[in-house]
Amino acid sequence: MLLVLLSEFLTLLLLSLSSRILTGPLIPETSNLFVAAGNTLYLVLVSLMFSFLFVWIIRKKAIKLYYFISGLKGVLCGALFWVTTLLVANEVTDFQDYAIILLSFTIMIIVGVSSIKNLTAISTPFSIWMSGASAFLIKVMFSDIAIGILLVGFSLFDIYDVFKGPLKHLAQTSQDRAVSPLLVKVGTIEIGLGDLLFYSLSVGLAYSVGGLLVAILSIITIKAGMWITLKLLEKKPMLPGLPVPVLLSVFVTFLSSFLIRVFH
After folding, report:
1. How far apart are CA 56 and CA 63, in angstroms?
2. Where are the domains of the chain?
3. What is the pLDDT of residue 262?
4. Which residues of the chain have pLDDT under 50?
5. 107 touches 78 (CB < 8 A)
6. What local confidence, expressed as pLDDT, does residue 97 receive?
7. Which of 174, 218, 236, 252 makes an SS bond possible with 206, Cβ 3.0 to 4.6 Å?
8. 218: burial class by Cβ within 10 Å (0-12, 13-18, 19+)?
């Protein structure tokens, strides 16, 4: 649970730092309900397409997937550092800009090599960074209503993906090493970075909607949802990690926000 908490706290920290600079979503059109729903549908379809492509690559052994994923993880971590730093900084001089770019490329190399070499002590902190910073970036891009719909949409997609979709077929392969850069160990189980991202995004939504108190309620709710999922895993060999924690968190977030507005 500690890794999940660290990712969630990282998202909260970045949102807090950026709140004095960003006063609204970077894509204000997502405040429209229909645009928000269409955005979620588009992202779910893109995810589905890449999931099928992912499974096809593994089965056909078209590329050395483990090295490709490790390299891609490094690129994403470096790019996230660059974009996030620019978003939370007030002003950046030319020298600082060059230093940020240099650090970004350094991070790319460190993450890529540590993932390939399976250096968990180095790669795990960057996995936390990747999920927490990604959640922050998504949150500042989209409106609260768009994030809420996105969380619900991907929770439902996760159910399909695990029981009927590409993830079910992926679990039936013997390519554990190939996808290991996309997993983090939480206690005795491994969870995907995507799950970690959406847990952090749920907390980010709670913070945006109701402040720190609602964010804390969201963190507690997610932990309760994870505990329920782990208990269900004792009876099922495989379950989606998003629906129970994320849907509970979204429900508690908007219910808390409504009650605060009514009784405050």
Report:
1. 11
2. 2-49+125-258
3. 81
4. none
5. yes
6. 86
7. 218
8. buried
- pLDDT on residue 120: 85
Q: For residues 167 and 214, is the Cβ–Cβ distance under 8 A? A: no
> What local confidence, expressed as pLDDT, does residue 173 receive?
57
Angle at alpha carbon of residue 71, lines to 68 and 75, rounded to 5°:
135
Report the pLDDT value the prediction gives residue 63, as an integer from 0 to 100: 59
Structure tokens belonging to residue 229: 């999922």
Residue appearing with tokens 């409504």:
258
Retrieve residue 136's tokens.
Answer: 């922050």
What is the phi/psi pair of residue 97, to 5°?
-60, -45
Could you write out the DSSP letters of every residue in 197-250? HHHHHHHHHHHHHHHHHHHHHHHHHHHHHHHHHHHHHTT-S---SSHHHHHHHH
Token output for 24: 């609204």
- CA 141, 145, 148, 150 torsion: positive or negative? negative
pTM value surpassing 0.90: yes
SS3 21: coil
Question: Taking Cα atoms as reference points, which of 47, 76, 56, 54 lies closest to residue 155?
Answer: 47
Closest listed residue to residue 72, CA positions, set 182, 201, 184: 182
Which residues touch 145 (CB under 8 Å, ≥6 apart)? 30, 31, 33, 36
Residue with tokens 């979204």: 250
pLDDT, tens digit (0-9, with 9 covering 90-100), for 179-222? 777 888 776 777 889 999 999 999 999 999 988 999 999 999 99
